[in-house]
## 1
Amino acid sequence: MKRTQLAAAVLLATGSVSAFAATYSVTPLPLQDTARNNFGRSIDDAGQMLSVVQLEYNPPIDVEQLENDTTFFADIGENLENEDDVRNGIFSDVDYTAIVNFLLSSPNRITGQKIAEFRTFKADTQDASVVPGLDQVSEEFGEFTRSVESIGRDSLNGNFVVGDSTGFVVLDPYENENGDTVNYTYPESGQQAFVQVSGETKILPPVDDTATGFASARAINSNLQVAGFSTVSFQDDVPNAVESCGVEEERGDVPFGRCLFTVYNGDFAVPRISQAFANTSTNFLPGYVLLSEINATVWQLDATGDVISTETYPLLFEPEEEQTGHFYTYAYDINNQGIAVGEGLTGDAVRVARPNAQALLESERVATVFRDGETVELLPRDENLLSQAISINDNNWVTGAVLRETSGVARSRLFAYNLDTQEQRYPDGFFRSAGVTANAINNNNIVVGLADIDATSDTQRETAAFMYNIDTEEFLDLNALVSCDNTFELLEAVDINDNNEIIANARIRTTSKYVTGNDIINDAGETEEVNTIVAVKLSPIPNGEVEECEVPEDELPYERQGASTGWYALLGMFGAMLFRRRIKK
């Protein structure tokens, strides 16, 4: 079943690709004119969705900082189409793109304008508005600076939005000992949890805010309880470094704020258990986080978004005195009974043989439940190498993934566990050794996520969005539930609400564009096609039926099960996206 470029253009123009013969219609979020890619994060029961955009078009440029505080003109000036125009703030498509690529290429440069690669938008299928996190409106630009990476993770009725954000980037002029002024630019805090209420952003503070602290908000329930995690203590190295920054003779010839930034600087990402993780590694964690203890945290909010109380959940074990490494519990979701789920470290290590790699020792992570002030391990440890709880519904069904070996290779596998009955489900994916990642569960006991569809030995396999019904035990490829003329390859189902509406990430072919959003025209006067990831909304069609599509046998990558079909490849850059939320309200 080949899809044509013309069909894709028509469908994008109309904004919907529904068909009467399908059970779901597909509508892209209105963000394709905003950024090169956009990734779905959540959908609430009001149908409001969160999507993170990447490579946003038309960011504001501070030419003065570009000229005075970077090496841009020395490095690239002679390659510009018109250097004089650029110095006067006039940019061609090519030069504008060169500027933005330069600024994005070195985010840790000590001076010069900063541009965030990712920002979040709240959207329905018609309109979208930015979720700025801790960003501020600039007098110079008359808009947000776009210097702050804001990741929205969950929403309630479209009004309350929770997530995490880097600090606002400040311009800190400093006269050094030589009498020269250095215009330092840096975020004024580490990653902070936030709630946006009626357009106003408020910080959800970490328990320990040494060196500004660290926190992430992952989910919000109807009782305004926000689940996430935050720093609760630091090893002595961190407060000692902060103290040194306060002493002029010790911090060196830099301002206090710039010195403090060196303490909390670093990117944070939570790996799924399909990725290797060691709690001594800086691959996912900033240095100061490696010197901290992080606990699952539940912030209780009032109707205005102010924090009434904060509760943290301890580690699963008591570290020995000689164990000085980084340990944590993380909460990823919370239901309306106030029960949160997530994961925690056990303090032990486990040897894991991942695809096409030698077996290595990794930190042992296990699925956990947080309730009544206690941290409780969810699954029998001896049955799994690792486990991770991702989402919980109001029926107390918990879903997530376990890591188990098949033929000596460890891949993730879906689990569903009922807290009340202790019933456990471990369904196969599209084939026995398929890797499966659960992202969310709704109150209709439907789980969504992504699963391998190609039984190769490759490290990264082709994937498709799936739906698993706990009650009927059906495991379906969502690509089989949409129209045969659908041009969106559904790679991952990210979230599902109680109306069974789904937000998913899909791949389409679009024209390559400049940072202005204008098409790139090659030397032959033609546009070029590139892969793009976009968030789409899947809406149930009343009385719809599954449509039988004709697919050549040589394009079927696996033995078909039920209504399952597809042959979709996940983009490398999409697979590299930080683990951000997949939560049900």
Note: The chain has ten helices and 30 strands.
## 2
Amino acid sequence: MASEEELFASVDALLNEEPHLPPPAERARLREAAGITQARLATALKTTTQSVKNWENGRSEPKSPRLEAYQRLLKGWAAKYPAPGAAPGASVAATAPAASAEPAASRVEMADAPQTLAVAAAAPARPATPRPAATSRRPATKKAAQPAADPRFPHGPLAVLDGDGCAYGVDGIVLDCPATTVVELVEWTLRESGLGAAKLNRYGKDSDPLIVLTSAAAVKLGLPERLEGHEQRRALRLPEDHPVVKQVVKAKWRLTQRGFGPWARIYRKAQGRERQCVQLAILSWDALDERSWPGVAEMEPADIARVLGVYAQRVITPRGSTAVSGLELMTALRPPTRAVQDPTTGNWVPGHNPGSLGTEPVDPAPLEAPPEHPVVVDSGWTGGFLNEEAYQWVRPVGLLTDEECTLPFAVGLDLNTAFLAAAARLVVGLSAPDQFHRPTFNPKTPGSWLVDLSHVEVDPRLPSPFTPDGSRPTGPAWYQTHTVAYAQELGYNVTPIEAYLRRETGAYLDPWHDRLKTAYLDTLADLGVTKDLTDAEFLAVMERHKDVDPALAAVLAAIKATVKGGIGKLRERPQGKKYKEGERWPALQRPTWRPDIRAAVISKARINMHRKMRNMATMTGLYPLAVLSDCVVYPSPGDSPLDFLPYAASGKPQPGAFRLGPTPGLAKLEGVQSMLWAVDLMEQGLNPARHIKGGDAVLDEGE
């Protein structure tokens, strides 16, 4: 029980405590009464006009020593300009709220947050004056994504640090970062910033905070504005003797094997459950690739924070390229371990998490690996390889009919995130492969089968479903389960000669698919593309959806790149000129290096495409001119998909064929050209699907 002396000391401390500042409205009144502009006050306090605005609308508080200076100024003004009805010389403290118990280091400023922020904050008592940036001109979006509330991370998952020490976060938050070195930045981020994100799975780990550096911030911290010299650019990292790298090492921090590059991860060994890791992204080192993040690197810091914040909230806090983030998302949603109780000691220890890929990598079967893999080189494997890749097919010009050639248009359809659609409810192998001779084919068992499908007849105006180039198989070859099952679906018997199958199976990609599908559809909906649109409305909205909000359009592009890049990373090849065939490369140390899972996704996507083309031929009599990955080109009597897609008498799309819509697996218009243009490309041996969009547009092929 506390003594009388201790209780009196506590009470005296409360009596002596000075309130910090008057209410926000009173701050504005006092400044206006003194005839001082916000800009002039900002100059006097050596801060920004925006910070003063935030103080006066209650969205943030100044930090020491600026806090004490501001308090002194307000007290002086209060003595000169008392509030109406107040006694002259009344103390500011008389009407001020009690001092905040919040540590000064965690106080934040709020940048202007326009109504279009996809991660929206509650409206302040007085609306902030919009800042003169691109964000202030955005139309309002239809819906807003709400971040999960987590008191451990009050300021969101990330911030964009500019050269003036302002760190722009989500919700328009602006943190005052005093760091002048990378080491100080890391320590500030972990101790004071309030940045981070909660784990996506109960057995997973929290996301490390991300700090994105503008070029000015990078220079201020002692980093080069750009990687200099041939060696740095080639290695995409600073040399080990660079002063910043030395500072990091001297302070007992570590860098990952990637070193200090565009995406630098700086960490110390975890203390208990508390991770000590900060992810840095350096904009001027091309951390945000233009293909995956179109236009983002050139945006203002607050807008960059908005784009990355929406992506972090809907997908994952970026940890590298979109391909890396796609792979990391798989692990975050299916952690390799969970807590299990040791029966002998009763202690809780890490144990295997069912449905995951575990903690140890497994080698593929030789036929599933690329030729340079050690399992191929060491075994001298000569039995052929699995060739499950996306379509690259052009119909021979000699198979075009006169009727087709007289049609005026070639129309390209693109399937929305075809690989994501293929990942839905996809059962894959979770364990190492086992070899079987003369097995009975089972369409529910994931694996690779050696089987002869050369006897399967397919209309020559369609590509073969069994090969990426659409040519007919000439003998036994290795196929993934979905490819062989499609031969059965077409009515043919299959007799496997050999197989590499996996005994432990599961729908590993289900949570990955579900999260990315939701992110994709929510972002499209924010751009005005919703499921309730008619097909004509859908086509009209898709023509202009990227202009509605360039920031959200960039998020959409990043989500699509995450899907394709994540699947591609499952079979990452060795990099660097020094690599020698047969050596193990770093990617092989990941449990997520699984070329068999990649093959399963691509096989299912290609079969889905062929099934739709076959149904289209049955329903409409139309055959494709060319296919490239998820894009197919058809001859058409009009310049719209509505002129050739099959519809029922009721006006509803026919199931089984290509259908328009925003959902993954449905189609959108990729481009329209003249039929003469398409035939000319085909005669040159080029693929119209690659260029149907116009200009120099080239679809990527899935990896």
Note: The radius of gyration is 30 Å.
## 3
Amino acid sequence: MQPFLSVCMIVKNEEKVLKRCLESLRGIADEIIIADTGSTDRTKKIAEEFTDAVYDYKWVNDFSKARNFAASKASGEWILAMDADEYVDREEFSEFKKALLINPPLADILAVQIVNFVGLHGAETVLNYHERMYRNNGELSYFRSIHELIKSSRGNEKRALIDLNVYHSGYLKEVVAEKNKSERNLTLLKNKKNREPIDYYFLGNEYSQLGMLEKAIESYKKGYQQKEDMHIDWVKKLLVRLVSCLHTLNRDQEALQINEGCIEFYFNLVDFRFLKGKILFDQRKSTEAIKIFNEILQSKDNLIADSSTDYLGYLPHRYLGELYEQQNELQLAVHHYSKALALNDTDDNLWIKLIGLLGKHSRDDEFLQFIENKCLKRHNMSLVRLIKILVAVPIKKVQNLSNNFNQDNRLTVVERHALLLKNSMLNGQYEELTKELSACQLNKIISTLSIGIFSIVDYILLALVSNNQILKSNLNKFKFDVPIDNLINMLLGKQNKRLSVQEEELFFSLFKQAYVLNNSMLIELLKKKRQYLGKDKRLMLKELM
């Protein structure tokens, strides 16, 4: 019997994510075709556990040619193209396949919704539709060397959207850094002949990902100038990204001017309304920002989200929580933080804000009851995660709550040891901690720090307060995804360059924790170092003092 649904993939060095993808497809897709473009890890071995149709393909810097090669091996009536860092919900995928069999669409090219997890831990999502499914009729194939599209040899394509989500983790920050996707994509786009308007949109995206925002803005503007129609999907996305880049570079007058025109033209789109609220929030125009976010929540049933459904509820509630907290409207702040968490309880920073607010203003018995009943009993809240949230709240009595779990058998031996170190730090047992950690092997320290309970912030503060040369020396030996060499050099009195954004954030964490410890020596030392921060960050730090 001829297969009905074939999944085709091109892969290279995807051992970390491929199994998750294939497990989501196994037994539902009738066949899985994998073209490997030169893996040197376990990718092919993992693939062969799920399918016999694994082929070697020589990479020629052209995604379309690779996808078309994989498709040439497929025998299903329909082809679904997927990447290794994507996956489907098995129940949803199974129901989708049944519906496709019973009631096939008239269209022959189908766009699925890609749910992109973004940021450091994937706490937020960005949505976009992408044409990934098509009839295997010999007439349809991919073109374009990068950001490939599907076309018919007859030029009579019929296109439609379908109700299928494909989940994508490939743009999490650590994954992007590891795979150098932007450098690869940028090279392919810059080498592309006969550039189309949409190519400038893609160029802008890659420049933006690499932090080259001026070039991103230049590319976005070229793409916009050459557009054929304001209603084309990529044009809306380009304008959202253009406004965001301008805002990041503090070109807010230009950003708001463009954004106002977009609000008027795309009147039922929430994206530009949300961007306006975010810019006003960052400008500390609290009253205006509150008005915008409340208007979004009141009108959300009549609005649609293009980039992210988070703009309709979760993010407005989150920002309103912060705004009302700044205005000391604590009941409203708690209300909006709680609403945001009801929509997305994976955001640890939001938990830190809510728990910090309650810890500061609630009775101890009420606060403990909240931790026990509203936090620990949640499906997504493990004990280790809760402890990491508690010790990240810049309030000593909240951090001290972690001591209640020292002997909990739900923690591993290493986790209990990390918690013991954290509690010793909170109790000011610097001498004992210094003695233990200066005698500890570096790999063991790294393993402990990676848990995130006794953190790099604690270790840096201990090195400073103890003035121990072994601890200080170890700071230069740690390897981080984002280098913090300039910050370490600054703290140790060595020559350093301007701190990166990540280093400034880490400096803020050090400063807050020094206040939690109530250690005057650390506080004064860090105050003297604030001259190395940018002007905006110095002003923000002044508010913490």
Note: The mean pLDDT is 89.
